[in-house]
Amino acid sequence: MHDVLYKLTQWLQPYYSEVAMTFVATLLVVYGDVVNKHIKRMLVPYPFVVRTLVFVLVCAFGYGAFILFVTPFFRQLILMIPSVYQGISIVSVFLLLGYMAERRRYI
Q1: For residues 58 and 37, what is the distance between their CA atoms, to the nearest angstrom?
Q2: How far apart are CA 86 and CA 1, in angstroms?
Q3: pLDDT per position as a tens digit, 17-53
Q4: Distance set, CA 92 to CA 1, 53, 82, 85, 96 (Å)
Q5: d(Cα 50, Cα 73) in Å, to the nearest integer?
Q6: Distance (Å, whole) CA 9 – CA 86
């Protein structure tokens, strides 16, 4: 069994940065609407132009910066897992993200 787990880890290892970015991007897709609702509530008293500008800045730069700065943290978390379990942990996190998306009715 360990051989299978090591093989999965070896297969995924060159892609840890991409996997980490996928985790972060998926979390933003699943929970981004919650963030947008909070921002919308905060911006209600402001004029249309200000609301639009803030929305564009948050979506274009805020979410982009979030992905850029949080991705290395997720990669480090993956690397902290013992190597025999890294591959199965990645698969498990993808399944968990799918479950979370299903609960929020995105699938």
Answers
A1: 12
A2: 14
A3: 999 999 999 999 999 889 999 999 999 999 999 999 9
A4: 17, 38, 15, 10, 6
A5: 33
A6: 6
pLDDT reported for residue 59: 86
2 pLDDT above the threshold of 90: no
**Please, how many CA atoms are within 13 Å of residue 31, restricted to the half-sphere of its CB?**
8
Indicate the residue type of 99: Y
Question: What is the model's pTM?
Answer: 0.86
Q: Is 3 helix (H, G, I), strand (E, B) or coil?
A: helix
- The structure tokens listed for 87 are 């591959």
Residues whose CB is less than 8 angstroms from the CB of residue 5 and which lie 6 or more positions away in sequence, other chains included = 84, 85, 87, 88
Q: Which amino acid, one-letter code, is at 94?
A: F
* Cα 19–Cα 23–Cα 24 angle in degrees, nearest 5: 120
